[in-house]
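Form 7-S
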Amino acid sequence: MNRRQVFGEVLLVETVIAGFVFVAVLGLLAFCLVRRRAGAGVSASQRAERPGLEGYYVAALASVAVLLVGYTAWQNHREQDPKREEPVRIDVSAFQWCWSFGYPQAEKPLQVSGACRGKQQPTVVVPTGRPVTFTLTSKDVIHSLWVPELRYKMDAFPDHRNTFTLTVDREGRWKGRCAEFCGERHSTMDFWFKAVSPEEYEQWVDAHAGASTARA
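Output:
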């Protein structure tokens, strides 16, 4: 999955940079402690300032910061880069305390919802290998759509729409949750995220189009 791959690459690069900085600072600290230890015979410097050295230090920090910000922004742009293929659209509506998933591209109205109690947890179905655009909103308070296995989370606000596009590269079924405390039954506000082959997805849409509440 492209989003998962991008996340992994960014985490790896930033971890390596952070580790290098940590080792460099630790090495300099150890060098100073050994060199300036008692009895080393080295007198303390009488200079109050070292603008040249401080300038190099600031420049190094600024370079690392610019590198991290620029690299992260570039990866975020690559992650959100729209594909030429028309994406599948899914409208997500969060409410206390469950979810509703609409498929506006179906020939007939198709809505997936539930009560988020026991076996009444809704399942959002997506095709693999195709971009899927989710549009999120909330009917009441702030919620947050979160699929831990896919490493993605997006907030849902009342009177506002958040949009993101992802592509799932493998079939599977994963638990989704609300990641924003939203009231008494927040802990039960779960759903299922199911990825199937494009052929199975089309069959599922055709079989459930026109149903007020579809089951997967």
